[in-house]
Structure formats: C-alpha cells, structure tokens
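Run: sequence + nicotinamide-adenine-dinucleotide -> complex structure.
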Amino acid sequence: MKKVDFDDMKNRVAVLTGGAGVLGTSMAEGLCESGVKTAVIDLNREAAINLSERLNREYGVETIGLEVNVLDKSSLQEARDSIIERFGKIDYLINAAGGNSPKATTKLEQIEPGNVNDITEGFFGLDAESFRQVFDLNFMGTLLPTMLFGKNMKERGSGVIVNISSMSAFSPLTKVPAYSAAKASVNNFTQWLAVHFGKTGVRVNAIAPGFFLTDQNRFLLTDKNTGELTARGEKILANTPAGKFGQPEDLKGALLFLLSDMSSFVNGVILPVDGGYSAYGGV
Ligand SMILES: NC(=O)c1ccc[n+]([C@@H]2O[C@H](COP(=O)([O-])OP(=O)(O)OC[C@H]3O[C@@H](n4cnc5c(N)ncnc54)[C@H](O)[C@@H]3O)[C@@H](O)[C@H]2O)c1
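>> structure
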C-alpha cells in the first residue's frame, strides 16, 4: 500500500515561472518547505536571484534564480540547460507567469443608456495590441515553457505540470476580456494536454486562484488612499462564501497535492482555491 504523505517530493526538481511574483513567492516557499529543489525563473532577474538566495538560506534546499522570458524560446532553452546542468532533471513545471494590462481593461462593466456614447471607456476603446500581449503572456507564456520542459518529462516518463489559471476562466469577469479569454484558454489547454500526455507518465492540472489581494489588483479592490474596499472589492467579497480574500499561502497545499504522488490519478482538473466563489450562484 502506498504511504500517503508529501515525502516523495524531497529532492525532486521544480521549475517555477513567474516565481518571483507575489503568488510565485509563496508557492516557491511551499516547494522548499517540502524539500523540492527549485528553479525560480522570472523576467525580473534581481527578484529571482534574491528570492532563490533567501530560500536557500531559510530552507537549506538547493535553489537557482534565473532571468527568463517565458515568451522567448531561446531564453527558455538556456534556462533548461542551466537547470539540467545544475540539478540533472526536471520533475515539475509550474506555469505561474501571467497577468493583465490596463490597456486591455475596460473602464465600464456594461454599455448602458447613460454611457452609450463613452466609446473609449468600453469594448471599442480597447487596444488590440495590448489584448494580444495579455493573451501572449498568459497563454503562449504557458505553452512555450510546457513545450520546452515538458519534453524532458516525457522523455523520462514522469513529471507534473501545474498551470495557474483564474476565476475569470470559468465565467469572464467584467472589464478584463483579454485576461479572461487567455485564462479560459489555459483551462482548455490543461485538459487537452492531460489527455494527450495521458499514457506518458506526465500529468497536467491547473489551479484557479480566487481573489488574492496582490500588487496586480490591490487598487482595483481597495481604495489607494483610504484602504477601504472599492465597489468591485465589495462585490467580490459578497460573492465569496468565506467572506475574505485569499492569502498567498492558501495556494501551497493545493499545489503540493497536485505535484505529489498523492494525486497520481488526478489528471486534467482545474482546482479552484477560492473560498467557495466558484460554487456560489450569488443568491
Ligand atoms: N493575484 C491574484 O489575485 C490572482 C488571481 C488569480 C490568478 N492569478 C494568476 O497567478 C499568477 C501569479 O500572479 P501574481 O499575483 O503573483 O502576479 P505578479 O505580478 O506578482 O507575478 C507575476 C510574475 O511574472 C513575472 N513575469 C511577467 N512577465 C513575464 C515573462 N514574460 N517571463 C517571465 N516572467 C514574467 C513578473 O516579473 C512577476 O514576477 C498569474 O498567472 C496570475 O494571472 C493571480
């Protein structure tokens, strides 16, 4: 009988994209707490190196921090070579690089009789190039690392990929059409790849975080000056049965579960970590 704990994770090797971000940092801590050797790869070189050094100091686990652009194949290839040279293998890939852009965000939630002439505030004011950039970062930024690092996993006949999706993937959130469509495509791709890799020993799942107060959304959800909830922040909390925002640490357990052999028969799921948001119909 298989023992049920996270011990199998010790000395495995994880690649974490966007690893120096707010949620990435917490996930990196969770990995190191479980003895996983961790490569923090991020566009922000200094942040990736600083985090890697701190993790190494605090947890005594081997880590590496690398500047990588998830949209640049040669940058990813270089990173893969450095990681293989340093650790000899790659067991886990967590695709956490992602985000939104103000230029791909509408000011209006809906077109209504009172604002019908505010053409730049709604859908028709969106900048198509920014739309593409958001789509690229979230979707292509998941696809390209998966192609690169997934190949090593397939060749070894084992590995786990976890994509970081969002609540906006299930039903799109108002104002963020590019981000919502891109994260929906991440869900769809997660399921497609789980099937495609179904007999290879490589599993593919996703986590859909609910609402976490982070740098990306702090001033959408709270007022910059007063710290009070904005109308949008209030709406979100009213629709979150837990009645609070998530803390980055809340993602750790879900991530470790999906990576460890405890979930060895779990493949192609999108696991919400959302305080019940996605289960609630609003009434
Ligand atoms: N914050 C939330 O409430 C929330 C909710 C749901 C989903 N998410 C998703 O979780 C993930 C992490 O979000 P976060 O809040 O920690 O964001 P964050 O902005 O703090 O972190 C994102 C990290 O990705 C890096 N990055 C950006 N572009 C990159 C590129 N081209 N190549 C490599 N790295 C790049 C950034 O430097 C940053 O360190 C994202 O995919 C985000 O969409 C966040």
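>> summary
Residues 17-18, 20-24, 42-44, 68-71, 96-99, 137, 141, 164, 166, 209, 211-212, 214-217 surround nicotinamide-adenine-dinucleotide (CB under 6 Å). The radius of gyration is 19 Å.
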